[in-house]
Amino acid sequence: MSSNVNRKAQGRSGFSLLELVVVLAVLSVLTHLAVRELGAMREGKLVQAADRQLDAIREASAAFLSDVGRLPRLTAETNRAGEVAYTLSELWKKPASLDYRKLVERDGATVAVGWNGPYLRLPFGCDRLRDPWGNPMEREDAAGLPRLFAASDSTVTNVCHYGPKGQLDGRRAVSLLPGAGLSCRLALAVDAGDYDGELVCRWLGPFENTVTGGTATVLSGGQVTFEGLTPGTKTIVVTKPAPAAGGSARRIVRLVEVAPGASQIQVKIP
User: Fold this and answer.
1) pLDDT tens-place string over residues 167-217
2) pLDDT 10s digits, 130-143
C-alpha cells in the first residue's frame, strides 16, 4: 500500500504532457513578442540615426556654403566596384575645381576663401556615404529612389532617406537651403560723427576661389541695404575719404554673420 502512495505522490510532482505544451506555447508567444519589440526598438534607433545623418549633412553644407560661397554640387564618383554615381563628395573630398582655403587681400581687407573640409567624414574604409540601412546616399540608389535633389546648376538643395523599408511612405527630407533660401539682405548703418560727406561701404565674401561683393555710398547717420547675399561670414569695409586739408583716409573693417532673411550691422567710424 505504501508503494501505491509513493507512485501517486510522484505523479503529482511532475508535469503532464498538456501542461508542458501550454508552458512551451506561452514561452513561444512571449519570445515572439519580445523579439518583435526589440526589432521595433532597433528600427526606431536606426530611424533616429538616419535623421541625425540628414541634420549632419545640412550642417556640413552650411559650413561649405560659408567657406566656398555656394552649396555643394552633385559630383560623379567611381567607387571600388567601378560604379559611377552622383553624390555629395565635395563635403569630404576637395574637388579639383576648388583651392584649399587661403587669405585674399581685397579693398583693404583680408577675406578667407576656399575649401576647408572635410565637412563630413565617411566611416573608416568606406568610399560611399550610406544611410544606417546600408543604402548609398546618391542621386539614385539601386532601387531607383532619389536621395539627393539638385537645382539646374547641380547644387544640391534637398537630401532624404526612405526609412527601414526603403519605401516612399517612410521618406524624410531636409532642405539644404538656409531658412528662406540663399538670398539674404544686409542693412548697414554708419555713424561718422560730425562728418557729413559720403562714406564708401563694401561687403566682401567668398565665391568659388575668388572674392565677390558689392559697393554703395551712404551719408553719415544713414543706412544702406545690400541685397542678394549668400548666408555665412562676410567682411564689411567702410571708408571715410581723406580730408581736403590733407591727411589719410580712415577705414573700418568688420566681420558679420549673414543669416537668411535680413541682418543688420552698425559701424562707427571716427
Assistant:
1) 888 889 999 988 767 889 999 999 988 888 899 999 999 999 999 999 999
2) 899 888 888 877 67
Give the separation between CA 122 and CA 92, rounded to whole angstroms: 7
Alpha-carbon separation of residue 116 from 61, 67, 85 (angstroms): 12, 7, 24
With a CB cutoff of 8 Å and minimum separation 6, the contacts of 12 are none
Q: What fold, for 41-175?
A: Glycoprotein, Type 4 Pilin (3.30.700)
CATH number (3.40.50.980, 3.40.50.2300, 2.40.110.10, 2.60.40.10) of 184-268 reads: 2.60.40.10
Question: Residue 91: helix, strand or coil by DSSP?
Answer: helix
Is 219 within 8 Å of 90 (Cβ atoms)?
no
CB 120 within 8 Å of CB 215: no
User: Residue ranges of the domains in the chain?
Assistant: 41-175, 184-268
Strand order in the sheet with 223-229: 223-229, 184-191, 261-268
